[in-house]
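ok posting inputs for the 4-fluoro-L-phenylalanine job
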Amino acid sequence: MQRNHERISFGSKLGAILAAAGSAVGLGNIWRFPYEAGNHGGAAFILIYLGCIFIFGLPIMVAEFTIGRRAKASTGGSFGVLAPGTQWKWVGYLGVLTGFLIFGYYSVVAGWTLEYLLQALTGGFNNKSADDFVSMFTEFSQDPFRPILWLSVFMIVTHFVIVKGVKNGIEKSSKVLMPVLFILVILLAICSVTLPNAEKGLDFLLKPDFGKVTSDVFLGAMGQAFFSMSLGMGCLSTYASYFGKDTRLAHTAMSVGLIDTFVAVLAGVIIFPAAFSVGINPGSGPSLIFITLPNVFEQAFSSMPLLSSACASAFYILLALAALTSTISLHEVSTAFFHEKFRISRHKSATIVSVGCWSIGVVSSLALGDWSGYTICGLNIFDALDFLTAKIMLPVSGLLSAVFVGWYLDKNIVKGEATNYGNLKGTFYPVYIFILKFVAPIGILLIFFNELSLF
Ligand code: PFF
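and the output
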């Protein structure tokens, strides 16, 4: 693959930061982080998570930025550009495949947010009991048509943004969606902490309980940091191929890390005070967002159905926007790759990706209902895809990226990219290299074995 010197770039540094932050902020922040934090020592988990972001997440993010910006190619092609004639190209291909598969099942859950938004807007949660919310979710997620309808809507919107291109699609949408997302997250957090007994929820989330900190918590925090910051599949490296030469990589990584953590912590501030205020014990996984929360919104404002509907709608809009900015980045990884590798138009490439990922999405969705009998190693296809990508493919490709930049890539290039070829001081450069060479590979191996329950 040719290195493209005339490559299109983001129009501004802010656009670059918001696009990368959009990739990072997603369902992982609003759905998984609060539960992980709440059940693993609250503030103690948050401190460990922050540690993971600083000592391990940010350096890997800078490494991925380095690969993308230097190669000026999508992740699938960048390893081939930087290490021609070697087997490193497979790391790029692995990233593309991972993104393709994640996109397939991620868009199923993204589609659910639209159904719940519609329910919230049309008063579908009114006068429902806790049991009603359970059956509502079970019936909906197992339905053969409705989830696929919403998944299709989500796919079409993502497709539409992608075919508009890097500047007019990805950058422009991030500049609109991210500020709306920040406003919603802040408004909902304020709303939640003003509910009666909100302090119990804040205690649950923020009171450090070091008694709950085990090695498992460290590894859980590392895994969460990895998924949440979109590391390990070249999403950020593809975006970095559109960075300008004066974009400061470490600064951009720091901004993305801060935004991602800010949204994750505020998601906890929305969820726990509201749940405790109505005396509901927060569950985990999909049930927290699609069963517990609608019930919370319904009960917290039972005497004010309009307010209940407004808060629930705002929450599902927030969730849908967060998911959309992430699906855009997942789509771009494959679209840019096919566009460059097979020299087809961006439009054609995006169509192939949309149809391909839509098909995986349909299979994943049916796997929760009619096709739940088809299993791989005891997991239905949805769970198998989640396991294969998040627990095996992401750590493996993240590890290889760290090793590639830490050990293989010419240090003049690595230092040049980190310091914008001498324009920045690079005070932390030795620490960065040390982390890439030793800390990150060991850390990732630990997550990997832990996730596979071999640890
Ligand atoms: N970071 C996203 C989230 O927290 O939901 C998920 C994700 C997006 C993971 C893009 C990986 C990726 F490349």
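notes: The radius of gyration is 21 Å. The beta strands are 375-376, 379-380.
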